[in-house]
Amino acid sequence: MVRPIGVIDSGVGGLTVVKEMLIHLPNESLIYIGDDKRCPYGSRSAEEVLKFTIEMAEALSEMDIKMLVIACNTATAIALEEIRQRFNFPVVGVIVPGARAAVATSKTQKIAVLGTTRTIKSSAYQNEIIKQSPYAMVYPLDCPEFVPLVEKGQYKSREAGVVVENRLSKLNGENFDIAILGCTHYPLLEAHIKKSLPPDVQIISSAVETVRDVEMVLTEHNIVNKGLLRQAPVFYTTGPQAAFKAIVCDWLEMENPDIRSLMLS
Ligand code: DGL
User: Fold this and answer.
1) What residue ranges in the chain does DSSP mark as E strands?
2) Is the CB of 9 under 6 A from ligand 1?
3) pLDDT tens across 78-92, in order?
4) Quick one: average pLDDT of 97-114?
């Protein structure tokens, strides 16, 4: 039995991190929880986000995970430190890797951050970017309409394009060369986001960089799966299975994923 890596998000957003993990960590088993029933977290209080994140981590702890990836910027911003203190498996978040990728790529150190209202209000990205690059200029923008569009499976629609364009027009006139997708749901809207930003702006998603941190932690803790064959990933949702499954099949290009229901209090 290969001990799995747990991955959590408020909904389907963390699948963007799972996609990279499946490519770069082909020997590892994964268990995913999407709390679709209570999504979006981005418009909830910090207390709620913390409580829900602890509940997901507890559920995965009972499933004997060997490490946890908080594949949700909102939960990372609010709950990362608390989760690290409460559980004895290693925990990786998405904000430090996202900020690192942006700072390393930006030529001008003028960086836009797109995120949920809770993430932007927490200033977690703004603080992390300045910590890594003290003279950077950060342009934060919360985009509360984006996550519901993705959860409804409407990320490819023309309407989504209009919503994205309207929201990003708030950045018109700002002169940044990088836009961080500071919410793991946003890569599903990337085509619309790209079209709505000036062509020379590069888009950074923290997913790829996060997998680097996962690899590092697996090695440091000596918990890389070297021998045993991995199990197929298991996906739990707290919401309706059909909508969740449709997005898993589309985004991860899977035909028959193992989707299960989970009740959290
Ligand atoms: N995918 C999440 C994030 O990265 C949360 C979105 C939400 O539930 O508002 O922030």
Assistant:
1) 5-9, 30-34, 67-70, 91-92, 110-115, 137-142, 178-181, 202-205, 234-237, 258-261
2) yes
3) 999 999 999 999 999
4) 98
